[in-house]
Amino acid sequence: MTQMALVIDLNVCVGCHACVTSCKEWNTSGEAGSLADLQPYDADPEGTFFNRVQTYEAGEFPATDTIHFPKSCLHCEDPPCVPVCPTGASYKREGDGLVLVDYDKCIGCNYCAWACPYGARELDPKRKEMTKCTLCADRINNEALPERDRKPACVLACPTSARLFGDIHDPDSEVSQAIRERGGYQLMPEWGTRPANHYLPRRKTEAHGCSAQSCSCGSASQPQAESLEGQLESGQVNLASVAAHV
């Protein structure tokens, strides 16, 4: 069975939100729209988004690392949101494994949102319908578009190619090779939902361009951490060094 999914490279995501804005633009004008925007420029903006980027700081000042973590529906192979839907509005499409919502059947009960352990669904405050990432289902199969454009809007918009799209069940696909060769992992696999989307972990880096005699950052005098977690904890990893060696 085909299972289309995203593979997101955390090494090269710079948190520019191009994926967020392109997703919003395409889906507002496509089959999923329109998506609500309430007070978008006020102190308390509110709206509906399929894709969000969460940003974290690791380490201790001044040797800190900024980590950008994009998150959307993971199109689980065993989605808990589907069986709880009382109207059958949430379903998993057989042809490509996408988890979708039939808006004509959705009654906005929120059962699917409560069942999703990833918080990937948002109730549109104007339409009172549950919305979520569709992996641009109305785009990837659109034969009116050039073949190179039959990808999710977020994938095409990413300036650093941090987002890959393809069939994870095809061992020869780009996404399968990336998962296999670079240790791609699922988000919270302990829930047993078998998320289709994967993340590529941050690579270990080594200090370059400084010496114990001339460097004032102090990293040259510190022992190299054996794991990424150790590097983050000791503040040895920084965004510039990661980007420089991708």
From TrEMBL:
InterPro entries tied to this protein: 4Fe4S_Fe-S-bd, 4Fe4S_Fe_S_CS, ET_IronSulfur_Cluster-Binding
Alphabetized UniProt keyword annotations: 4Fe-4S, Iron, Iron-sulfur, Metal-binding
Domain 4Fe-4S ferredoxin-type: 4-34, 63-95, 97-126
Coiled-coil positions: none
GO molecular-function term, one example from the UniProt record: 4 iron, 4 sulfur cluster binding
Pfam families for the chain: Fer4_11
Keyword Iron recorded: yes
Protein origin, superkingdom: Bacteria
Name of this protein: Fe-S-cluster-containing dehydrogenase component
Species annotation: Paralcaligenes ureilyticus
